[in-house]
Specification:
The protein is of the alpha+beta class. The protein is built from 5 helices and 28 strands.
């Protein structure tokens, strides 16, 4: 009997050690391979079913283990995707099975998702849903206010660009070659528009930057862009000419590119990041040396906010300011000095919820990262917001501090569709969220912040793209009946 009671703990201990060793090996393999191209994703970030049926099969494809997914991809995109894949499998079948077992064992059955019960409480704005009475309703892809001409430009998925007055009466329209995603103004005041080529995920270099002249002619400035979603014009080399930085979001392939203007009217091209997912760019002299630097958000895998310090002659030193888990769905960022210490801080949104893990996630939302010095950042504030896709910063109530307005393209349509828009008032108690029940009138993909009615305060316009994915039928039916394209949030400050 003594031997029996002595052996059981030993056998139990050996069993525990064996399991721990197995876990240690599985975890080591996961960190080695799943953390080689992006931040290592902890199993707890997604539920078992999503890992097993969505994410891991896609990772097997990207690691060269299973090319069967190619049959589901457009033929025009296949060659570009094949060039992005490894020539041979990056991992053995045996090790891959261990990684799959690791995620299946240590991931939860479901995610615990917080419910933010914010009542219809907004006082800062009067919310007014608008129908533009155009051919394709709820197809908005951009909104831009031109204060000089008292015009509002609205671009649509079918490639139509409308010019409205501030009472939203049509002044003019033009058919563009493809869906517009961004609009600036040239020195002469004419619109300069970024065209996506094909809006849906693809690898085709059909995007471009075009200038719209007064004679309604479209002048192509830059071509062969890969599903671009953002760009900025700036003089990056101090030669007096206009250069460009472009976010080629792409899909499996893409890039962050800079275009240096040449005397002959052409451009020298520089690839700053040869990866898909370039989403947002800000240009600012952040080190005070007199040259403009670049800050960019990379999504689609290795999610980062990166600084490119300008060293002159289009030479840049890259530094990663922030890095996020690969499933966060980074969607936007802005910079501002939230604590008035003279250094720029970062507001980051995460909420892209398409592709391979379309489940509500507790880590989606808004985060403020304070600059602790030498452009090092520490998380200061987080607010959960399902599907957060864009945020703007402004002193909407004119009290001397910075407030936040945010939209979501993937809100919880089942229980809180009104939280497609949230206004955060900066108070002594912190940021107080406020919503309007009219926030459920569309699927908000873009937001303009400007003094639309020229009364001295900041207004907002939200644009709806009613893409049917992940939307309940009853919501789509309601939108189809109402046909609202915009939600105007007129500031009540006066």
């Amino acid at each position: 009997m003594k031997i029996f009671f002595y052996c059981v703990p030993v056998i139990l201990l050996l069993s525990i050690l064996s399991c721990e060793n197995l876990k240690s090996k599985e975890e080591r393999l996961a960190k080695q391979y799943c953390g080689s191209c992006h931040a290592f994703p902890d199993p707890g970030l997604l539920d078992k079913t999503t890992w097993r049926e969505k994410v891991l099969p896609e990772m097997a494809f990207r690691m060269g283990l299973d090319n069967s997914a190619l049959s589901t991809i457009n033929f025009e995109d296949q060659s570009a995707i094949l060039r992005s894949l490894p020539a041979r499998p990056m991992i053995s079948e045996e090790d891959w099975e261990m990684i799959k077992e690791y995620y299946d064992t240590y991931s939860p059955d479901s995610l615990s998702v917080p419910i933010q019960n914010v009542e219809d409480s907004i006082k800062q704005f009067e919310a007014v849903p608008l129908s533009l009475h155009i051919a394709q309703h709820q197809m908005v892809t951009l909104i831009k206010h031109d204060s000089a001409r008292s015009s509002i430009y609205v671009g649509t998925r079918p490639g139509k660009l409308y010019e409205f007055n501030t009472n939203f009466k049509v002044r003019d329209s033009v058919q563009l070659p493809s869906s517009p995603s961004k609009l600036e103004f040239t020195d002469s005041g004419d619109p300069r528009v970024l065209l996506m080529g094909i809006m849906d995920p693809n690898e085709q270099p059909n995007g471009s930057i075009v200038d719209l002249r007064n004679d309604d002619k479209i002048n192509q400035v830059v071509d062969s862009l890969q599903r671009p979603v953002d760009f900025l014009s700036a003089d990056l080399d101090n030669d007096g000419a206009t250069d460009f930085v472009v976010c080629n979001f792409g899909n499996y392939t893409g890039s962050l590119m800079a275009f240096q203007s040449r005397p002959d009217g052409r451009f020298n091209k520089y690839i700053l990041q040869n990866l898909p997912g370039a989403r947002r760019v800000i240009i600012k002299d952040i080190d005070g040396n007199g040259t403009l630097d670049i800050i960019a958000l990379m999504a689609q895998g290795d999610e980062r906010i990166i600084a490119f310090y300008n060293r002159g002659n289009f030479q840049f030193r890259m530094a990663t300011l922030l890095r996020f888990d690969a499933v966060y769905g980074s969607s936007y960022f802005e910079i501002a000095d939230f604590n008035n210490d003279g250094k720029f801080d970062i507001l980051h949104t995460s909420g892209d919820n398409a592709d391979y893990s379309p489940v509500l996630k507790p880590y989606h939302g808004l985060r403020i990262f304070l600059n602790t010095g030498a452009n090092q950042f520490k998380e200061h504030w987080f607010y959960p917001m399902h599907g957060a896709s864009q945020a703007r910063i402004g002193d909407f109530d004119n009290d001397g501090d910075l407030d936040i307005a945010a939209i979501s393209f993937f809100p919880d349509f089942q229980t809180r569709p009104d939280q497609g828009f949230i206004y955060f008032e900066n108070t002594p108690r912190g940021f107080v969220p406020q919503v309007t029940k009219l926030g459920d009138k569309g699927r908000w993909i873009t937001m303009e912040m400007s003094d639309i009615d020229d009364d001295g305060d900041l207004d907002l316009i939200l644009g709806s793209l009613a893409f049917p994915t992940q939307i309940p039928d009853k919501v789509l039916a309601k939108w189809s009946q109402e046909r609202y394209d915009l939600l105007l949030l007129r500031n009540n400050l006066k």
